[in-house]
Amino acid sequence: MHTIDMDLVEMTLDVMKYAIDRISNVTPELGAPKKEEELLRLVGETITPEGIGGESAFQLFKNVLVKATVPIDHPRHLAFVPAAPTRAAIMFDLVTSASSIHGSYWMEGAGGIFCENQAMKWLVSLTGLPETAFGVFTSGGTAANLSALVTAREEWREQKPAHARDRALLITSTGAHSSIKSMAKVMDADVHLVNSEEEFLSGTALQQELENLSEQDRNRLFAVVATGGTTNAGIIDDLEGVANVCARENIWLHVDCAYGGGALAADSVRHLFNGIEQADSITIDPHKWLFSPYDCGAVIYKNLELAKKAHSQKGAYLEIFKDEGAQGFNPADYQIQLTRRLRGMPLWFSLAMHGTNKYKEAIERGIELANIAASKVEQNDLLELVRPASLSVVLFKRKGWSAEDYRDWTYKNHNSGFALVTPSLWKDESVVRFCFINPDTTEDDIEQILATLD
Ligand SMILES: *Cc1c(COP(=O)(O)O)cnc(C)c1O
Q: Is 261 strand, coil or helix?
């Protein structure tokens, strides 16, 4: 399988040509899903004892299968949290794969981990956390949240040995991402939700909530999770107020900035994150607003040593490294995964190539596009802005439309290959939600999409 033959060379050239074409195509065809039976009918069974050959498999991918996917970097893809990996980052994702580096231990991955850590150093600097702080790249925000929360729970058990066998409890708000509840389930921990219509957690509301907890619940409380940019509306909790309460009450504060974290680099909104420098742990997803290809999340700890206590795995076969160069930062020690891809390398290359100022500009552009969209909405009699744009999210209503009308609108725009724009809910009512990430989205794109709401 590993001998170089002419077919392989040709195959490599084909794949590289496809990759280059795709990377340089800024408006890729907006594909749509098909039923699995339909795909099977179109391509047939692809795994056979003899193999169908690289050329055939690649043709099936190019002609059929990729068309049943939605490119997340399309400039009129404003649904969920889109993405817009830089060309440099995507190219380096290929290099990361081609280099076959094990990213768990310094002993095998030193040079690559050095790259990741350079990028991480910049991320950490955006948070204002003290010198002891550092982090590690994960598969995404969910894994980052889980890694942070497991660390928080271990620390709580250490500090409150009398309660170490209690079911752990965390507090978060209704604006928090679904992964918080889902990871609490993985940890078999309970979640106490602070209700807030506005998707916003204030220090006062948190204090109130703590006062209302029973003594038993207070003792099993191991973390507060605040959000630095809710996924639905881009709202940032009162991090300063929440951090002060957590400091006074000695509770671990985790700030989930999976979506909003990129905005830490944007001077125009950085003040909204004040207080984040007091967090015990922070999640940021470079694959959302820092232009990395999937998948790349990050978890940062104020005290990295606590993460090591929680996550470091020991094995007889892992204790063999003798030479000095083998001693260094082991990413496996600080998050839930052992064998890992060096998923921070594409971010590193792109940051190194472009410089951090380019990143700031591209993130500011997302915020600007949201403000532009909001003002266009305000000027349109058929539309009603439900709240000011927040980070890069805009929520607004089409007057007179039912939930069904919004769904039809989404379907029509997607089906015609024009745009992927979806409704969401705000205070239990249907709204249009735009989330801007791609700096190549234009004012004209926004106008054309708004025109479809006529
Ligand atoms: C997207 C998101 C997550 C989950 O991150 P994944 O990378 O999808 O695992 C968690 N929290 C927030 C606030 C998010 O926006």
A: helix
CB atoms within 10 A of CB 368: 18
Residue nearest atom 5 of ligand 1, based on CA coordinates? 141
273, part of any domain: yes
Whether residue 344 lies inside any domain: the answer is yes
Q: Is residue 383 part of a domain?
A: no
Rounded to whole angstroms, the Cα distance separating 257 from 297 reads 10
CB atoms within 10 A of CB 378: 12
**For residue 106, what is the domain's CATH number?**
3.40.640.10
CB 127 within 8 A of CB 342: no
Mutational test site, ligand 1, from 137, 139, 149, 179, max ligand atoms within 8 Å of CB: 179
pLDDT tens for each residue of the chain, 454 residues long: 556 677 888 888 999 999 999 999 988 999 999 999 999 999 999 999 999 999 999 999 999 999 999 999 999 999 999 999 999 999 999 999 999 999 999 999 999 999 999 999 999 999 999 999 999 999 999 999 999 999 999 999 999 999 999 999 999 999 999 999 999 999 999 999 999 878 899 999 999 999 999 999 999 999 999 999 999 999 999 999 999 999 999 999 999 999 999 999 999 999 999 999 999 999 999 999 999 999 999 999 999 999 999 999 977 666 666 677 778 999 999 999 999 999 999 999 999 999 999 999 999 999 999 999 999 999 999 999 999 999 999 999 999 999 999 999 999 999 999 999 999 999 999 999 999 999 999 999 999 999 999 9
Q: What domain range includes position 186?
A: 93-354
Residue 259 Cα to ligand 1 midpoint, Å, equals 6
For 201, the 3-state DSSP assignment is coil
Residues enclosing ligand 1, CB less than 6 A? Answer: 81, 140-142, 145, 177, 179, 227, 231, 256, 258-259, 285, 297
- What is the spatial distance between Cα 326 and Cα 342, in angstroms, rounded to a whole number? 17
Residue 210, in any domain of the structure = yes
**Whole-prediction pTM:** 0.97
Phi, psi of 223 (to 5 degrees): -165, 150
Domain tally, the chain = 1
Judge if the upstream peptide bond of residue 285 is cis by omega within 30 degrees of 0: no
